[in-house]
Amino acid sequence: MNNDASRFPTSASNPKRRNHARAPSPSVAEPRRPLLLAVLSFVLAARACPGVHRISLLGSTLTAKAIPKDVDVLVTIDAAMDLTTLARSGRRLMGQAQTINLGADIFLADTTERYLGRICHYRECHPRVLCPAQHCGQRDHLNDDLDIVTLSQELIASPPIELWPKVIRRLSVPADVEEALLNKLDQIQ
Questions:
Q1: Could you give the number of structural domains in the chain?
Q2: pLDDT tens string 12-41
Q3: Rounded distance, CA 41 to CA 57, Å?
Q4: Is residue 12 a part of any domain in this protein?
Q5: How many Å separate Cα 99 from the centre of its chain?
Q6: Which of 116, 91, 115 is nearest to 105 (CA)?
Q7: What per-residue confidence (pLDDT) applies to 26?
Q8: Does residue 126 fall inside a structural domain?
Q9: Does any domain span residue 146?
Q10: Is the Cβ–Cβ distance between 135 and 146 less than 8 Å?
């Protein structure tokens, strides 16, 4: 019997494949516009949540990178606010990004510029074995995986682009960010 499986190494047996970071592989030719429109929808929904003070845009979407792997949003909130409605809007953004094989992260900070964690991608909160949160289930919809991801106080205090309550540009952005997101928010506000 011929064992052809040995000719096709799996990632577990091939260290080069296992350690190689995968490049994003979107399901659409130009993923930036759908990501930016998803962010616009998120901002319009999240700004109505009681306890949300500021919404900002971070990360590779602010560069000319043709295929960002995800979109990163920072939301400044009252530390004790109920995250249910914001988490629903955040999961909608994550889902829209996922439909084109990309991702989204909604980072949370409080008004004292303290990083809290990220919106959990689970709809219902209860402790899970595979959850990376340090205190899984302790606060609904909060993934406090601070040992994996954290944002500096400087970035929280002065993010590159603020989207709400007022659009503030601290750097030059690609034309598509300006057109599909910032100009529309300027008009709405």
A1: 1
A2: 444 444 444 566 676 676 899 999 999 999
A3: 13
A4: no
A5: 14
A6: 91
A7: 63
A8: yes
A9: yes
A10: no
